[in-house]
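ok so i was messing around last nite and threw this chain in just to see what happens. nothing serious, just curious
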Amino acid sequence: MTTCETGPEAEVRRPLREVLREDVRTVLAKDPAATSRAEVLLYPHIHALWTYRVAHWLWGRGHRVAARALSLLARAVSGIEIHPGARIGRRFFVDHGTAVVIGETVRIGDDVMLYHQVTLGSVGWWKDLRRPSGSRRHPVVGDRVVIGTGASVLGPVTIGADSRIGAHSVVLDDLPPRSRVVAAASAALPPLDTAAPLDSSALTVPEGTHAS
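result:
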């Protein structure tokens, strides 16, 4: 049995067994917590990716309701939402996976890794409706890009190969290859003085309100 790859270099037919084995090897290579192939089969990423492959095949052949139904099932099981119209390259990996969102016109290269709560989305329907029909609304992510926890890459931007996007970053513009994006670090405040007496006035309920 063979399958069509869905990545940018796709339409090269590869044996299904080879594709599935490569997916499992990718998790073993990139997650130190994965100790066996049997354990990898319990990863949400694997369930989401393999279901996406079937949904993408259906989407490309016009079976869009069935494709969306599979996508919804994968989201319920894995917490990862991948639109069946997206195109994903080889050796893709989502670590942990919860709350990852990948939009319809996203294009992902090879060897890309996402962490949980990453969004590859659009900038908003009010802008998308003004674009020409069929226009790209979502990011293109180059080969070997890593996107950290909670980061958002929004709109029809292009992320160059070998870039690193740090946790909680927001990217709205194109990035050249080998870019590094880091979100502002949280400021450390002076410690609370827990030994000071409590100011009882701070607990007073204003007149006309009700404490619950």
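not much to say yet. The radius of gyration is 22 Å.
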